[in-house]
Structures are given as structure tokens and as C-alpha cells.
Design a protein that fits this description.
The chain has 327 residues and is an alpha/beta fold. The protein has helices at residues 19-32, 43-49, 82-94, 106-119, 143-164, 179-187, 202-214, 234-244, 266-284, 304-307, 316-325; strands at 6-11, 36-40, 52-55, 99-104, 123-127, 166-172, 192-194, 220-225, 249-254, 290-295, 298-303. The longest helix is centred in the middle third of the chain and has 22 residues, at 143-164. Bound molecules: adenosine-5'-diphosphate.
Length: 327
């Protein structure tokens, strides 16, 4: 095992608020520990193209509060192939980089696993994704900020919903995981929450709306995750409700990419800072090919293979809470 002297840090896949705070922590911890740190721009694409620059403690000034990623990110098709990864290896060798910190989601970690197997480069993953769909950590960087963005949006939608006696169907991100919908739905006081993990059925939705209407509710917010299990998109759900309850004025709001942007919450900044420090500590202690996570407010490590495995569980208690409170 060679002593690590130079590390590269990159952000990859979907951007998430708090990635910059993680980059800052990785760079500053490296400098603190007398390790040279290189920023690799545009994720794996930058590794292939050699978009690599040495960073120092001052390079990451004033970014802790910024959304997006100053290192940029990219989806890199070439990295899926052996030849692409070989080009990437040759480039990082030119810079004598001997370990990598990858900030991204499960796709980025899958790429990192292949890269490590082929070239034996030590890698550490930091989970950065708004979806919170990575095993081995209770929270991913960006998730808390995204929840707050969604709740703020729902509060605004509620103002107009109440004023017009309208039913709003709000689509939030989450193709495979309902964490955002479920949590922001409860936080925003949504009447029903449709998620990929549970098929509630559209009839149940109608029953619930009818009951609420009888009890005097004149406006409602339904939260739908992109990949909700009914298999219907928000516009189809809206038509279904309108056809069955013509007395309701239904509107659809797709929150889309605003959920990714914005200044990271304090929670995400602290999480990213802790994960960045812990990633460098871990590398220097000689532990590789793991992801840094948080559980019970403690930093934990899990093999990258575990981190990308399957689905994360939703908290069933939240479903119960939502059902009780939406009467
Ligand atoms: P995320 O990391 O947010 O899940 P992606 O799934 O887009 O985002 O993955 C980011 C990048 O990681 C891809 O553009 C690609 O370069 C690399 N990657 C993803 N999956 C693989 C794979 N199976 N093999 C090699 N590289 C991969």
C-alpha cells in the first residue's frame, strides 16, 4: 500500500445543494493533513479530459453557502466503457493522483467500483443526492435542503389553493424513492401522498377526498412522487379526479428542478462538512472503497457495493402519521 500524497475530488451525477460544502471540507482537510488536493471538473468527464486543477484552502472560499457544484458535474457516457476508464486512469496518473473522493449518487459509486477494481485506485464515496436513496446512511447531502424547498413551495401553493377552493396535485422528485414526497408531504400538510413504494390505488384517493369534502375541507394538496406506484402521471391523476369529482377545480404543479437548487440548509452544510472531514480521515487511516454515511448522528462507513444495493426503506410510521393527520 503506497502512502497517499495526492488526492482528487470530483462531483458526479445529479447535483445537490451541499456538494460545495463537501468539496470545501475535503480540500481543507487535505491541506490540514499536508495532502495535495486536486479538483477534477465535470465529474468523470473531467478525469478523461484532464480538467484537473490543484486546489488550496483559499480555492474554496465562500462556497459553503452556494447551491450546485463549483466543480461542475456531468453524466459521462464514456466512463461506462473500459476504454473510457482507461483514458481517465492515464490522465490522473499524469497528475500523480493516488486516491479519489467521489461525491455523487449510486451511479457515480458504481463507476467508482469499476474503476477501483480495474486500477486499484483507493476511492471514498460521499453521498450527494436530493433523493436520499442511498443505503448505508440515514441522510444524503442535499436531501434536507430539497425538503425545505418543497415545503416552502407547498406553503405558497396552499395560499392559492385556499383562495380558490382548488385541489392541487403537486409532483415532486423521486422516481424510485418516496422520501421527499412522504416527508415534505407531512411537513406541508398534504392530504394524500402517493409514492413509488406503496400502491394506494386511485379509488382510495377519491374516497379520501370525498370524506374530506363532507367534513368541510374545500381545498386540498395531493403530493405525488414522480415514480408513484399507481403508474399514472400527475396529469392523468388530475383528469381522473376531475372526471369523478367535477365539483372540484383541479390544478397540477410540477416542482421540477427548483428542488435541486438553492442555498444548502444548515443541516446539509454540517452533514457535508462532517462527511468531507471523515472521508479524508478514512483514506489516511488506510480504509478504502467505502462510503461515508451518518447513522444516529455518528459517522459510519459501508462498502460501496452496499451503498448502491437496492432500495432504501421508507419509514412506515410516516404513512400512518400522514393517514391520521389528513382526516
Ligand atoms: P448519480 O451518481 O447521481 O446516480 P448517474 O447515474 O448519472 O448519477 O451516474 C453518474 C456517472 O457515473 C455516469 O454519467 C457515469 O459516468 C458513471 N456511471 C454510472 N453508472 C456506471 C456504470 N455502471 N459503470 C461505469 N460508470 C458508471
Amino acid at each position: 500500500m503506497t502512502k497517499i500524497k495526492k488526492i482528487g475530488v470530483l462531483t458526479s451525477g445529479g447535483d445537490a445543494p451541499g456538494m460545495n460544502a463537501a468539496v470545501r471540507a475535503v480540500v481543507r482537510t487535505s491541506v490540514y493533513k499536508n495532502i495535495e488536493c486536486f479538483g477534477i471538473y465535470k465529474g468523470y468527464q473531467g478525469m478523461i479530459e484532464g480538467l484537473i486543477k490543484k486546489l488550496n484552502a483559499r480555492s474554496v472560499n465562500n462556497i459553503i453557502n452556494k447551491g450546485g457544484t463549483v466543480l461542475k458535474t456531468a453524466r459521462c457516457v464514456e466512463f461506462y466503457k473500459k476504454e473510457g476508464r482507461e483514458k481517465a486512469y492515464n490522465k490522473i496518473k499524469e497528475f500523480e493522483i493516488d486516491a479519489l473522493v467521489i461525491i455523487g449518487g449510486d451511479g457515480s459509486f458504481t463507476g467508482a467500483i469499476h474503476f477501483n477494481k480495474e486500477y486499484n485506485i483507493p476511492v471514498i464515496g460521499i453521498p450527494g443526492t436530493i433523493d436520499n436513496d442511498i443505503s448505508g446512511t440515514s441522510f444524503t447531502i442535499g436531501y434536507d435542503t430539497a425538503l425545505n424547498t418543497v415545503v416552502e413551495s407547498i406553503d405558497k401553493i396552499r395560499d392559492t389553493a385556499i383562495s380558490h377552493n382548488r385541489l392541487f396535485i403537486v409532483e415532486v422528485m423521486g422516481r424510485d424513492a418516496g422520501h421527499i414526497a412522504l416527508n415534505a408531504g407531512i411537513g406541508g400538510g398534504a392530504e394524500e401522498i402517493l409514492i413509488p413504494e406503496e400502491d394506494m390505488g386511485l379509488e382510495r384517493l377519491l374516497d379520501s377526498l370525498k370524506k374530506s369534502q363532507k367534513s368541510g375541507k374545500s381545498s386540498s394538496i395531493i403530493m405525488v412522487a414522480e415514480g408513484d406506484k399507481t403508474g399514472k402521471n400527475v396529469f392523468e391523476i388530475a383528469s381522473y379526479v376531475e372526471n369523478n369529482m367535477p365539483e372540484y377545480e383541479v390544478r397540477v404543479s410540477v416542482l421540477g428542478h427548483i428542488q435541486r437548487g438553492g442555498s444548502p440548509s444548515c443541516f446539509d452544510r454540517v452533514l457535508a462538512s462532517r462527511m468531507g472531514v471523515h472521508a479524508i480521515d478514512t483514506l489516511l487511516n488506510g480504509t478504502y472503497n467505502v462510503m461515508v454515511g451518518i447513522k444516529d448522528d455518528m459517522m459510519v462507513l459501508s462498502p460501496l457495493e452496499e451503498a448502491i444495493k437496492g432500495q432504501t426503506e421508507i419509514n412506515k410510521d410516516l404513512i400512518r402519521v400522514s393517514e391520521i393527520l389528513s382526516i
